[in-house]
Design brief:
This protein has three domains: 66 residues, Arc Repressor Mutant, subunit A (Orthogonal Bundle), CATH 1.10.10; 98 residues, D-Maltodextrin-Binding Protein, domain 2 (3-Layer(aba) Sandwich), CATH 3.40.190; 71 residues, Periplasmic binding protein-like II (D-Maltodextrin-Binding Protein, domain 2, 3-Layer(aba) Sandwich). With 269 residues, it is α+β, with helices and mostly antiparallel strands. The chain is flat.
Length: 269
């Protein structure tokens, strides 16, 4: 069976909004048309994707899986179409994926000063699948934090950063200057592996509402600073390593030049 990308795009919009009306408005189509397209999509796939109620829709188990897969499929197709257009127009483009809190702007500026004819762009790397933009073709290079799946990748270490304990500002430990791992014994720690699909915004919202404490890279909490959260250094917590990553078989001169420039820029940044 061929996958209908238009219907997949419609489904992803409904899954994001959990509402047919808002999804239809985003897609600039009538709500009845969207409903018929989703019904047809379910029939083509021979499985239910949504549970419809009078106020909103929820995803079935199959729908959740397709939503996860579908976002990557649509991103890959979009990147492929852009590359085709770039070739047709004679455009050279370098796309860099970056993990939350890591800043690659200085490296891009330095690269552009030496390669003004090359278009540059960035894409976010989600914390639970940092390597995905490299593998699906959305980016040629990533500025990432370990750990991630390094199979088939070549990495260049850039530096380390500390992890800090992020907690509600009213937490009894929040008045301390620093902590050790022993200070966190008995505290409820957010179990990241069980919340793979949680965004960082959701993670910090859970922390602020008292659901637990999380060890987070310092650069991340600086980007998500809010008055109802506190973060303290944990003196004996292992640091997080930052690195540049590319597919091992990619050896283009453009990539080699960026890696050289980015390594020098980011290690001193």
């Amino acid at each position: 069976m061929d996958l209908d990308l238009r219907k997949l795009r419609y489904f992803v919009a409904v899954a994001e909004h959990r509402h047919f009306g808002r999804a239809a408005a985003q897609l600039f189509i009538a709500q009845p048309v969207l409903s018929r397209q989703i019904r047809a999509f379910e029939q083509e796939l021979q499985c239910d994707l949504l549970v419809r109620t009078t106020r909103r829709v929820e995803l079935t188990a199959a729908g959740k899986q397709l939503y996860e897969e579908g976002q990557g499929i649509l991103a890959t197709v979009s990147a492929a179409v852009r590359r085709v257009h770039d070739v047709e127009r004679g455009i050279q483009r370098l796309v860099v994926a970056f993990s939350p809190g890591l800043h690659v702007a200085d490296a891009l500026r330095a690269f552009t000063s030496r390669h003004p004819d090359v278009e540059t762009d960035v894409v976010p790397a989600l914390w639970w699948e940092q390597d995905a933009p490299l593998r699906d073709g959305r980016a040629q290079v990533g500025y990432l934090r370990r750990p991630f799946d390094e199979s088939g990748l070549r990495t260049v270490p850039i530096g380390h950063e500390p992890r800090v304990a992020c907690m509600p500002a009213a937490h009894p430990l929040a008045s301390r200057q620093e902590l050790t791992s022993a200070d966190l014994d008995g505290e409820r720690m957010l179990d990241v592996p069980k919340r793979r699909r949680a965004s960082l915004e959701e993670k910090f919202e859970l922390i602020a509402s008292g659901h637990g404490i999380a060890l987070v890279p310092l650069s991340v909490v600086r980007c998500y600073s809010r008055p109802d959260l506190a973060h303290l250094p944990v003196t004996d917590a292992p640091e997080v390593q930052r690195c540049l990553a590319v597919l091992a078989d990619r050896r283009e001169k453009l990539l080699r030049d960026f890696l050289e420039i980015a390594t020098a820029t980011l290690r001193t940044g």
